[in-house]
Amino acid sequence: MTTTKRGRGRGRTSALIIGATVAALAGITPEASATRARDAQPAWQDCAGQDIPAGMRCAAIEVPVDWAEPDGPKVRLDLARLPATEPAHRIGSVLGVPGGPGADGIDDLKHAASDLTELRRRFDLVAYKPRTAVWREQMPPSCMQPGTSLFEPQDKQQYRALAAAMTRAFKACQNADKTGLFAHMDSLSAARDLDAIREALGEKRLSFMANSYGGVPAAAYARLFPQRIRAMYLDGTVNQTDGWPDQTLRALPVLEKVFTRFTTWCADTPACALHGQDAGAVWRKLVRDADRRPIPVTSSEFGKGELTGWHLRSFGFVGDPGPDHARWLAFAAAVGKARDGDGSGFADFALGNARIWATPGALAMTCADDRGYSGYAQLRKFRRQAQKTSPNFGGASFDALGCTGWPLPVANPSLPLPARGLPPFLGAGSTWGDYAWTESFTRMIPESVTVGYDGPGHVMYLSGRKCPIQHATTYLTDLRLPEPGTTCPAE
């Protein structure tokens, strides 16, 4: 699940206060987690299953469901390791931190192994199944029942109604949960899981490859255990430390530029359904009209519904044109039909996402990371900023709306990340999308660099992009960063 920032200059005193505050909110200090009960070293054996890369070994560890209760119930985390191919020159381990949240890092390693052969010469490549992926497999069926179909509240009364509906759904999910994970999927808990893996590997310090939402537990790890990071590569990661509203506002100008690419392409492409027209003006009129008079639609999967302008702004446009611009061709055709009252081209995707992002079991993996609005006043302020920033897509964020009504305290609040004690990080991201997120993260860490990929895409090393992978390999192996401003051409 991907929805799909601040500079330096904060004093040491405030950094120490912030670190202490986060530890207190989480109910356990880093020092306490370091003295937790340790299991025996994991028993590595040949991995079972299909599509296993040659030499991959598997094991498992158990960690507390609630790190504040180390002797309480446990959750099993599966591990996988591809040993270094040049053991005499081995440096250590690189641990992958998967995104989603809910993605299985072992699947990521299976997929990426052939593209990481150079990195593997000097490192064991290690992956794991995070607690969010365990939750996805074990959550009760009631947790997949949407609390509502998301909409954009226009006043306090509508906001309160949305919050009440989501609170009921969250509580029903929590009451049905037998694992205890519902209340403990925040990224501070995930960061402590990462440190338990480090201990199980017998490493004093680890190198990391974090992707997408994996940047949130990576930031939490940097906050709690800075001295245990040898190197950190961030690929298309979000920057939760700046707060989700700022993260979205940072992405909107990029989306506007991509939309301009679409309108330019459409003007030059006779096959585009809006060719010969002002495609941007057609889109904006469609959205305005849908806000006034929602478009009735019927989805084969989700039944009857209505498409408002908010649905179209949130779920209508896809920035990646796809092979042979297939996605942009489909988008233009859907816009042309929708302005004539036929919203079928948007129905499945928009109605589906409006329900998926109101599913308590999915949202429980992110809401404790401070993803929701604090109240209607914050939503209204954000909406004004978003509409000013993005005439084509500005509006309330669907992910933050879904976390409205979260019934538990925010375990991992958005706070600036103290850079003291951290090594320089390397980031990578698409200039068409997630570069702005990743760069806002690495900018917090002195001497860090983010490489831009000049094309669409998300998570370069899982996409097999050779140039970003080479920069990551050089950095992780030699701790040598590329020059600031380095860009990789589209592949």
From TrEMBL:
It is an enzyme of class 3 (hydrolase). Residues 401-488 form the Peptidase S33 tripeptidyl aminopeptidase-like C-terminal domain. One of its GO terms (molecular function) is hydrolase activity. The keyword Hydrolase applies. Keywords: Hydrolase, Signal. Transmembrane segments: none annotated. Its EC number is 3.1.1.-. Pfam families: Abhydrolase_1 (PF00561), Abhydrolase_4 (PF08386). Residues 185-283 form the AB hydrolase-1 domain. The keyword Ribosomal protein does not apply. InterPro entries: AB_hydrolase_1, AB_hydrolase_fold, Pept_S33_TAP-like_C. Residues 1-26 form the signal peptide. This is Carboxylesterase A. It comes from Nonomuraea coxensis DSM 45129. The gene is caeA3.
